[in-house]
Design a protein that fits this description.
268 residues; alpha/beta; eight-stranded parallel β-barrel
């Protein structure tokens, strides 16, 4: 076959200094959401195996559909579950997200599991969806997927912030993704807009800039704050969730109907 290549639209956006917008898929189980979100303008789906009841098989179906829909898939696995991470990567995911990374040692261990040699020890699965299940040389497969798939570490604690520079220095780590909600709770801040949270995110942003890594941000609903962090360099941004959109859409639809029908209605 011709020289192997895999397109990762998320990496393309990051490498060209454009924002890659993600949407959290935790509630919907139908792969129609893949094309829906791609058409809406998102670059990646955040498939959550840490908190949702979603199965790896469902994740696989999303990933396969996404390969043909020009949208990436980032799969968050529970902390330390490297075998789940590599199974997701073998079966169509364009990146893996590891929560609550607090040290360079943890980041190094993640890279060791999810990267192929010479950067890691990940085992070769020779027939994968990225190449239409054609058999190819281990060397070409490893080189291509090492270069295209993203390794994302989440910073969600005071210790993670403290160690951000050391974590960002680890070769093979691509994105430091701040989970603002968990971080604010972990440091005792009342909300994600607290100055302590802002300072923590700025610390992570500085670490990313120093070590040429990308800054990610999730768990923040204040658009003005997100814009401020984008100016600080955040490019890997989580911009909502399926269940939140459904709830908001339902409220908006019903409120609009009631408003149009007027006030002279039986109580509901």
């Amino acid at each position: 076959m011709e020289t192997a290549s895999v397109r990762n639209i998320v990496r393309e956006h990051l490498e060209s200094d454009r924002i890659a917008w993600g949407v959290n898929v935790r509630f919907v189980r139908s792969i129609e959401v893949v094309r829906l979100m791609a058409h809406a303008g998102y670059q990646w789906l955040f498939l959550d195996l840490e908190h949702s009841p979603m199965s790896l098989e469902t994740v696989n179906q999303f990933c396969i559909a996404a390969l043909d829909a020009n949208i990436g898939t980032m799969v968050r696995v529970p902390h330390g579950q490297y075998s789940l991470a590599t199974r997701a990567l073998d079966n169509g995911a364009m990146g893996v997200v590891m929560p609550n990374v607090e040290s360079a040692e943890q980041a190094t261990e993640l890279v060791r599991h999810v990267k192929y040699a010479p950067f890691g020890k990940r085992g070769i699965s020779s027939m994968v969806p990225f190449f239409h299940y054609e058999t190819m040389s281990a060397h070409d497969l490893a080189r291509t997927l090492n270069a295209s798939q993203l390794t994302v570490v989440m910073i969600e604690s005071a210790k993670g912030v403290e160690q951000a520079a050391a974590i960002a220095a680890v070769p093979g780590v691509d994105v430091l993704f701040v989970g603002a909600s968990d971080l604010s709770f972990a440091i005792g801040a009342p909300n994600t807009g607290d100055p302590a949270v802002q300072s923590a995110i700025e610390t992570v942003a500085a670490a990313c800039k120093t070590h040429n890594k990308w800054l990610g941000l999730g768990g923040m609903r204040d658009a003005a704050a997100v814009a401020r962090y984008a100016r600080l360099g955040a490019r890997f941004l989580l911009g909502g969730s399926d269940i939140g959109m459904l709830a908001q859409g339902a409220r908006t639809q019903l409120a609009g109907l009631k408003d149009q029908l007027g006030k002279d209605l039986p109580p509901s």
